[in-house]
Specification:
mainly beta; two-stranded antiparallel sheet; about 0% helix; elongated
């Protein structure tokens, strides 16, 4: 699986989040 770390998203309540792609 690939783990993509995304930076600060102004449209999200979280300062940062990760997307796991199988």
């Amino acid at each position: 699986m690939n783990l993509k770390i995304l930076g600060i998203d102004p449209g999200s309540r979280n300062c940062g989040y990760a997307i796991i792609e199988a």
